[in-house]
Amino acid sequence: MSTYKPSLERLSELIIQLKDGACRRMTKQLLNSGTDPTLIMEVCQRSLIDIGRKYETGEYFIAGLIMAGDIMKQIIDMVLPHVNTPIQPSGRGRVLIGTVAGDIHDLGKNMAGAMLTTYGYEVHDLGVDVRPESFMEEAKRFFPHIVGLSSLMTSGHVALTQTVRLLRQSLTADKRPVIFISGAMIIESVRKRSGADFVVNNVAETVFLCEKIMMETQTGLGQSASDQISRKKALDEALVAKKKKNNYGNSG
Ligand code: B12
pTM of this prediction? Predict the structure, then answer.
């Protein structure tokens, strides 16, 4: 049994030390003490970034990444059933997700997919290492309102750009989905280069943005470029306001 008071900071330390049993116990204690499940997930995500840095500097090896991935998966499985969702009907909108070609990271994508499903979205997950053509074929069949592309490695940015281009070229304006991109190495300049509409950095942001898009535009399809730009500006402002309100890292 852990002798520590449950806290998100302590969970982060345990994750970074790769102590899986203690991580499970701490997560259980945090959930029992009423900590917001999305805060737990965000702390995990940030801790895994630290583990990635340790891998880069040679302090951890590939085994460390594998263990970290395993711990993250266990925590996600414990946390997801505790996510409180507003009561709303299914069929909020269709979301197509997948990890781009050459990349097998899937924890963030799975987490985002599970959250969106809980929130009533119809999520179609193409898995990992997905070719641009597969995204395009599925988009033509499924007609998603939103497409979410995951890419955790710098080497995936080419595939990301190719996928966005192909989706834009092969779908007519009225069936064009809003495209999100996400992952560890994704920043605004990558979004610009790829031609995607939004970068999402965590599940809370993903759900928030999907809700806004579905609410504000009915379907989010068939917008003119200027509509898209003004909508993006409004959403960006809303996200900044939401971030300011968030009080990370000091519950428990
Ligand atoms: C765990 C991990 C692994 C695990 C993955 C297990 C799995 N099933 O996914 C394993 C061990 C398999 C792995 C392998 C490799 N990895 Co790795 N890995 C990581 C690590 C530590 C954490 C990633 C993670 O799961 N984070 C937790 C999740 C929850 O966060 P997230 O992915 O950011 O997702 C959140 C948001 O971005 C968003 N989101 C993410 N995806 C999506 C998708 C959609 C649709 C939406 C809406 C939202 C969304 O929501 C999520 C939740 O908030 C990262 C470090 C880091 N900085 O992230 C390195 C990292 C990504 N890996 C890296 C590397 C180099 C590799 C390897 C090449 C190592 C090797 N030598 O073999 C291989 C790559 C294999 C391949 N071809 O893909 C590098 C990439 C560096 C770079 N510049 O490209 C990183 C950044 C580590 C580092 N700092 O060096 N890795």
Answer: 0.86
